[in-house]
Amino acid sequence: MTDMKTIAELDRASVLHPFTQLKDFATGRMGDPTIVTGGQGVRIQDATGRSYIDGFAGLYCVNIGYGRTEVAEAIARQAYKLAYYHSYAAHTTEELAILSGRLVKMAPGKPSKVFYGLSGSDANETQAKLVWYYNNLRGQPKKKKIISRERGYHGCSVVSGSMTGMSFYHDHMDLPFPGILHTGSPHHYWGAEAGETEEAFSKRRAAELEQLILREGPETVGGFIGEPVLGTGGITPPPAGYWQEIQAVLRRYDVLLIADEVICGFGRTGADFGCTLYGIEPDLVTVAKGLTSGYMPLSGVIVGEKVYGVMEDAADRIGAFSHGYTYSGHPIAAAAANAVLDIVEKERLSERARVVGAHFQKQLKERFAQMEIVGEVRGVGLLGAIEFVADRHSKRRFDPQQKVGARISKAARDRGLIARAMPHGDILGFAPPLVVSEAEIDEMVDLAYQATKQVMDELA
Ligand code: PLP
Hints:
By secondary structure, this protein is α/β, with parallel strands linked by helices. It has 16 helices and 15 strands. The longest helix is centred in the last third of the chain and has 22 residues, at 438-459.
């Protein structure tokens, strides 16, 4: 076996790592790559033999935990039987048909069909094409603009990266793409005016959305995309009444609603889908991450009856639906998804996320809410965040140069906990596997507390 020093050298010499400061990595300023060698339950190990609680389930995806042999076996079985066939021109496999039937049965809205990709980004790229396709087919060729929210995260390909509402994902990359617009973020803590209730704030955000649609011309606005709980932009549950207000505006102007369930789907919030929890009735749904718990790359675009009906009705006139990837509906990924969904159902992971999640939210609030450098503790189910501020009374932020969020995340890591420094602001994010126990939650919260205390003392 190649020794780990050689692996690290090979990596540094040849991998272009996502979201990495290239010079820091190339020169060794940020140290050697962490070589992850194994995982079991909620923990991973690295090549030095260190073990960490993975408080972020990889990238909010390993919901069933690491090392689930049932899924490994399902993958192997399918690989031995038939490693690949495509799904173009009415070809299918057993696993693909079974998975699709399950998704159509369980998904929110009025699901009709599922289209498959490999990542959340490509799925949202497909969503944009569907909004354009649908409106072309029904004779509304100008109704093409798509609105997303500031601080929303929908991926980083050309259109999905444009939907993402954080400028550092656009800078130097010529995004956003024309026709993708942004409206205000649903974050009450930062967005509300003095004394404004959550309900009033939600109404204001909906009124702003309406003004944007009217300014652009409703005949030019085709879609709206949002995560039920804003994820990478800060792990922010919606303020009270938000989705009801937003949906009323979308209906008024005949704008399709795309629910990006990439993080929320399959139990993360304590409900099967974020849509279920917040009463969202989407026209289109994006799923990925929890669909396979990261055991294989797979995403899905769940097309509702309204959109699908228009597509099928136009088919005799326009011919085939000309969109798809070599690996759309890959049978090994579909087998992995079926095995993962078996676990999600058998172990009732949504319910578990609700119950253990309530304990988690309580612990986070109890340990952190009163700390001097904490502005807000928030979350739902097994999604949580702590936002750090220099002055909790005036909500003054820390100087970004102090890198407070990153330092706390690093101090946690040094103690054996992975909790993510979220990219926007000083926020420590949590999204542990849904199989996490209450004892592991306590351990996680305690390590995060010690890490925060350490950095708070350094700042004093
Ligand atoms: N949508 C949401 C809500 C996400 O959180 C992410 C990734 O974190 C994506 C889309 C993009 O998914 P991927 O990284 O698989 O392209």
